[in-house]
Structures are given as structure tokens and as C-alpha cells.
Specification:
alpha+beta, four-stranded mixed β-sheet
């Protein structure tokens, strides 16, 4: 008895990947043709919009280097190696990140990475010991921190929990960087420029967002929350926030005559569709893009300038 043909009613329906392979059998001769083929597949129902977006993101990784997606060194949230524990805890609570580069004398001297959860191990137990005895839990990856031994006697106890940092050149392809992060089980890499200085940092989340789009976490603005305080005179603001609402919330005096939303005002002021980490100063505030795609602006980090900085802006 003959096997049923692929088109027979009894054969299982093709999965979308099989159908996509059939569509690509013509072997597109360029990336543009490949993108066009994928878009046609989406229009014909072979792919949904989400799958198309992720596939385009994967293809675009090929052209990206670490420098293209890194957080610049000037905008890195870092911890100083000689900082006291109480100041460190306030800084971690204020910024809300889960891991931090730890620096020595300056940002070019990155001695390692500290996880916020590891820092909890160094919190004094006042209720058990009025002298503030430290928790006696073994630091992670002790064997990787042999270089920490013999440090200055006055070094803060929390430095025992610093993990080794991964360093990569700014020219490293993002595809290769993702593989290296996964293989080394790291979530953050320090990006080094051609002179050996720290140019910025990249997290595994930064890479994944190039594929799947923005990944919200508990520190991002909720969909129904347009403005959220993120420390002293700092805010995370949705780009669709009406300018008038922003003015009332933070005491600003931005004009809403030409634009209704904060995103529209910032985009016009920059002069093009902003990309992540672009900044501009307006009305006594610094606006930094923390989320945007190829079509629109999503979220901004807004910082009130000091009187001297505001005067320089004017």
C-alpha cells in the first residue's frame, strides 16, 4: 500500500518551520531578499508577527558588535571597592539592579562583579549581636578569588563576595558574545576599547532584547504606571506620558504647545528617532532613552539637573 502523499487529508499538517523551509527554498540572494521573504511569509499566515520579529532580530545580530548595544561607561551603575556597607546598600536599593561592576580607583579598574543577592550575606545581624556580627555564610566561587587574599586589612568584608568579571573587546560580535556568556555562565561582560580602558558593559538581557524585544522586570515601569520614582530626583517615564502630567508630577515646566507626549518632545529635540542610551537636556532635566525600537520610543530615564548643570544647559 502506498504511503499517503503530503497533501492527503490523512497526513499531519506541516509545522510552520517546515512551511518556512519551503518558502526559503528559492535561496534569497541577499539579506534584504531574506527579510522580504519572511515578511511575505507573515502576510500569508505562515508566521505570526511575534515570530517574524524574533527571526528578524536574530538575523540582525550578525551585524551588531558589543559597542552597538553596550551601556556606556559614563552611565554604568558601579560600586566602589572601598565603600562602607551601609552606603553600598543605599546605592543598591536606589538603583535597583541585580549585579554591579566593582571598581578600584576609577572606572577603568574593574576588580569584579557583585551580585545584589550576595551582598545580603554581609548584612549585620543586629538582633543577634549588638556588635553587628556578619553572617557566616561561605562566599560563592571562593576558588576564583584567590587574588583577593592579601588585600588591605581595612578592606570592607563585603568584598569577599566579588565575583570575577568577564572582559570582551568592543568589536566582538554579539552572536559570539552571547555564546561566551552562556558558556561561562555569566550575565554581564565588561566591554574594553582598543586602548584597554573600560568602554561600557553588556548584559545577557541586552542581547536577548535585540531578539525578543524589551524585557520588563520588577524595576521597569508597569504598563499602567506612566511615571515611577527611581531615586532622588530620578524617574522612569513612559514615552506616552502627557507632558502636562509630567510637569505636574515632577514640578517641570516643559511646553506642551507643539507636542502632547514626552516621547514626541524628546524625539523632536534629538532630531531623529532616538536609540537606546541617547541623551538630551531639556528644561532642567536630562532625558536618557532606556527603551526604543525601530518604530518608536518606549521609556526614558529622567534626571533633574543640579542648578549649576541647569545653568550650563541654558
Amino acid at each position: 500500500m502506498d504511503d499517503p502523499s503530503p497533501s492527503s487529508p490523512s497526513s499531519p499538517p506541516r509545522r510552520w518551520l517546515d512551511r518556512l523551509t519551503q518558502l526559503l527554498s528559492g535561496e534569497p540572494r541577499s539579506r534584504d531578499e531574506l527579510f522580504e521573504t519572511l515578511e511575505n511569509a507573515q502576510e500569508r499566515g505562515v508566521l505570526d508577527v511575534g515570530a517574524l520579529s524574533m527571526m528578524e532580530g536574530v538575523l540582525e545580530l550578525h551585524a551588531l558588535r558589543a559597542r552597538d548595544i553596550m551601556i556606556p561607561r559614563g552611565q554604568m551603575a558601579v560600586l566602589e571597592q572601598d565603600a562602607p556597607l551601609d552606603a553600598l546598600l543605599r546605592q543598591v536599593l536606589d538603583s535597583g539592579h541585580s549585579r554591579y561592576p566593582v571598581i578600584g580607583e576609577d572606572r577603568d579598574e574593574v576588580v569584579g562583579i557583585l551580585l545584589a543577592k550576595d551582598l545580603l550575606r554581609a548584612i549585620p545581624l543586629d538582633e543577634e549581636d549588638e556588635g553587628g556580627a556578619l553572617l557566616h555564610l561561605p562566599p560563592p566561587s571562593t576558588k576564583d578569588r584567590e587574588s583577593q587574599k592579601g588585600g588591605p586589612s581595612g578592606m570592607e568584608a563585603w568584598t569577599a563576595y566579588i565575583r570575577p568579571a568577564l572582559f570582551v573587546p568592543e568589536s566582538k560580535r554579539v552572536e559570539a558574545l552571547l555564546s561566551e556568556l552562556r558558556a561561562s555562565r555569566n550575565h554581564m561582560a565588561m566591554v574594553i576599547d582598543e586602548y584597554g580602558g573600560v568602554a561600557g558593559l553588556v548584559t545577557i538581557e541586552d542581547i536577548l532584547e535585540q531578539i525578543v524585544g524589551e524585557i520588563d522586570d520588577e524595576h521597569d515601569v508597569e504598563e499602567n504606571v506612566m511615571i515611577r520614582a527611581a531615586g532622588s530626583d530620578r524617574y522612569i517615564v513612559h514615552a506616552l506620558t502627557p507632558i502636562n502630567d509630567f510637569n505636574e508630577e515632577v514640578g517641570a515646566h516643559l511646553s506642551d504647545e507643539d507636542f502632547d507626549t514626552l516621547g514626541g518632545l524628546v524625539t523632536h529635540a534629538i532630531g531623529h528617532l532616538p536609540q537606546r542610551d541617547e541623551t538630551i537636556e531639556l528644561g532642567g532635566f536630562e532625558f536618557r532613552v532606556i527603551s526604543a525600537d525601530r518604530r518608536r520610543l518606549h521609556r526614558l530615564r529622567v534626571t533633574r539637573l543640579s542648578p549649576s548643570e541647569a545653568a550650563e544647559e541654558s
